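This is your field. Please look over both lines of this record.
***
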Amino acid sequence: MGNEAIARGALEAGVCYFTAYPGTPSTEIVESIGEVANEVGVIAEWSVNEKVAYESAYAAAIAGVRSLTAMKHVGVNVAADILMSSGYAGVKAGFIVVSADDPSAHSSQNEQDNRWYGYLAHIPVVEPSSVRDAYRLIKTAVEVSEKYNQPVMFRTTTRVSHSRQYIELEGDISASRSCRGFFDKDISRWVLIPAHARRLKERVVKLWRSIEEAEWGPPLAEIYNPGKKKVVIAPGIAFAHVAEALDRLSAWGDVTVLKLNLTAPVPVKPVLNAASEASEILVVEELDPVVELHVRAILNKHGVRAIVRGKDLIPEEGELSLERVLPGVAKFLGRDFAIPQTAKLVEEARIPPRPPVLCPGCPHRLTYYILKTAANKLRLRNVIYTGDIGCYTLGYQKPFETQMTCFEMGGSIGVAHGLSKVVEEPVIAVIGDSTFFHAGIPGSINLVYNNGRAMIVVLDNYTTAMTGHQPHPGTGLTATGSKAPVVELVEVLKSIGFSVYVINPLHIRESLDTAVKALEEYLRGGRVAIVSRMRCSLEAARLSREMKVSLPVYAVDEDKCTGCMACVNLTACPAIIVPENSKKPVILEDMCLGCGLCAYVCPYKAIYVKKPGGEGWEKLYTERTIS
């Protein structure tokens, strides 16, 4: 996989220190490193957030140790403060920041193009066009970083990060590397007071110009079929789509192609060399016209009169594909084309829509039911629930409707505070445990400091579930699986002034009583937080298999069931279905993970435990450490 290729290439390049906060599509880079870190003698860490991850890896690089930090594109926003300053100060050893961008926002709240960060921070941006490219170019990026003593952004996309390709390995991984450095106390470089920053800005501007004007060739800039009147410039993943489009059009012989893997700054000489005989140039790139704008500037500065096309032919939004690139390339070349037709089935399959839903047994489903029911008991009809980034964002759907905003990590608490200052309705901020550690603590302190009137609910499922169950400071484990101190989020909340109620949503009735008490205190003016503790059901299922302790399985008693659909309408559990031509629900036994919410909500007691759980099964859901 692309992310594994990046990890392997970085190890071959001698990178010693790896940090990250998990975020799709970047997660597997440090996850892969964590699996072998002890064996090959490197440091791998899940950091509390991207800012801290960047700071930690950057610190190693200014002490002469090669390092890498990885994050998804929106994570770079969290790290932007230190990123900008690191561009001024530079490094003493290779330092790579992987920005895994997400065109089409497959798993993100936006599809920002992080190549702009390269220009903002004067940090070179290298982007691969394939998995194989990623493996090779990560090593080149380390070399570029050390040649210029500057951080380098390695920009991937979802397509590169999560595609798979066979790779012929080019080097071994040394198990005897030294990951010790030396910090040179150069105050004039590392202390960015205004006087130092002004001088360092002069340094980085000169450095940027030298990178722009350097004699770049393969693997960062490669010209195919030079000397043609028509030129296509294809940075990063766009090259793969251009190559396929030219194959379909049988047009390789009619066009010069510049494959560009250094996209910030756009290198001057490869562009001028490719355009030496050109009358018309097409820039094919994903998302923003970053390269297109700089190609126009380069040609204008050097008096090249070729017409530059780009976003007038290639979509600016969303992920590129052959179907989206081929029409633009064909029009540019004046060719007729036909979009390849997919084979049609004789009888179209009837596939029902499957929007994302909370998993069977998900603790968030139970907690949302408890919150809504507690509010109903107190006749609170207009509660505002501010939401955050995680599996629990799915609470925006019916029947829960407990996520009414979702902007960025930790945003639920800050937004809740602001709303509580200007609206009359009760405001409840919902946030996950990993997200609380990532960005929820400052918002919580701000809420206390500025006397906000919002209540906080932390959904503690003992893991970073949405990105694949990575550990965090509250789990007692590190990225390599070794034991770590547990940072107790309940104590954190208490220490800043919250009255904390802890519930175990597996015990619905007791949790409901506790939630009512918490809401009552909140309505009296108290500063209240609820911590809902129950392990992610997928993790509980995994532990069940490993420890051979079965979870309960529920079933519907057809004789008692009236078909009222309370279990369907109040839980939205995917393990409960209504068969075609039936008016009564059925529980899929192989999907049921034993949470019992359906049995609790059934007004006719028609749902029962068909297969009791094994001895101690509740511990799989409720205890942080299972031995």
